[in-house]
Amino acid sequence: MAKKKNNPISAASVFIATFAPFENGKRLPTNGMVEPMLSFFLPRAKKTTLLTQPHSGSDFVDPLIDEYIGEKQVSSKRLSKFLYYPIYLLCKLQNDQKTHISLKLRDLLSVIFVGLKSQEKYAFFIGLESINTLGGIFLKKMGKVKTVIYYVSDYSPTRFGKTFFNNIYIWLDQYCAMHADFIWDVSPAMQKARIQAGLNAKKSAPVILMPNGLFPSQIKSLPIE
Fold first, then answer.
1. 4, 171, 190, 209: least surrounded by Cβ within 10 Å?
2. Residue 106 to residue 95: CA distance in whole angstroms
3. Pairing state of beta strands 72-78 and 64-69?
C-alpha cells in the first residue's frame, strides 16, 4: 500500500487578496475567485487570511478581512478607514462603476497594512490582478511572504485604449509577471498576449493554467420556455 503523501500546505499560512462586488451587505458571485480559493485552501491550510476589496459601486468601500483557522472562520472585520483616511474619502466620492486611482491605492495599501500588521509569516500570497500582487511582492521583500502568486482573471493589452493609464496597466502586469514566483492564468492566450505586448519571456515567472470554474449554486437556470 502506497504511503499517503504529506499535504505541502497543512502547516502553512495563506494570504489571499482579491475583490468582490457587494450588494445589500452580501458578496456577489461575480467576484475574484473567492469561493474556489476558499474551497481549496480552507481544508488544507493551517490558517487563511482573506482580504476582499469591495468593487467600485458596492455598498461600502472598506476592505474586509476574514481570518480562518482550518475551515473555521475566527474573525471578520473591515480595515480601519483611519489608516488611509484621505484616500478613503476619495473612494467614497468616486464609488461608481468606473476604475479610479483612489480605489487602486486603497487596494495596494490594504494589502501592505494587513500583511505588516499580521503576526504571521505567510508561506503563500495569492494576489488577484497586478495591484494586489504588487503589495504581495513588497511583503516578500519585507520578509512577510515566502511565495507570491500572481493570479490573473482578466487581461487585455489594450484594456484602457491608447492612454497613459494603459501604459501603467501594462507595466504593472509585466513587473508582477517578472517578480512573482508563479503566475496563475485563466487562459493560455494571456501569456502570449503579454509577450506580444513586450514581456521578456525569459524573465517571466512560470505560468500555471487555472481555468475559471463556478459552483452550481452560483448559477441560476432559466425556465426551459
1. 4
2. 12
3. antiparallel
State the pLDDT at residue 196. Answer: 95
Q: What is the C-alpha separation between 225 and 211, in angstroms, rounded?
A: 31
Q: How many residues does the chain have?
A: 225
Q: Which residues touch 86 (CB under 8 Å, ≥6 apart)?
A: none
Query: How confident is the model at residue 5, as a pLDDT?
Result: 55
How far apart, in Å, are the Cα atoms of 36 and each of 28, 39, 76, 213?
14, 5, 19, 7
Q: Which backbone phi and psi does 134 adopt, to 5 degrees? A: -60, -40
> Residue ranges of the chain with pLDDT lower than 50?
1-4
Which H or E run contains 167?
A: helix 164-179
Burial class (CB in 10 A: 0-12, 13-18, 19+), 25: exposed
pTM, rounded to two decimals: 0.91
- pLDDT of 126: 98
CA distance 136 to 129: 11
The predicted pLDDT at position 85 comes to 92
pLDDT computed for residue 124 by the predictor: 97
128 close to 151: Cβ distance less than 8 angstroms? yes
Q: What are the grid coordinates assigned to 178, written together?
A: 517578472
Q: How far apart are CA 1 and CA 10, in angstroms?
A: 23
Q: What 3-state class would DSSP assign to 135?
A: helix
Residue 59 backbone dihedrals phi, psi, to 5 degrees: -65, -30
Residue whose entry in the numeric block shows the C-alpha cell 517578480: 179
Q: From CA 50, how far away is CA 126, in angstroms rounded? A: 10
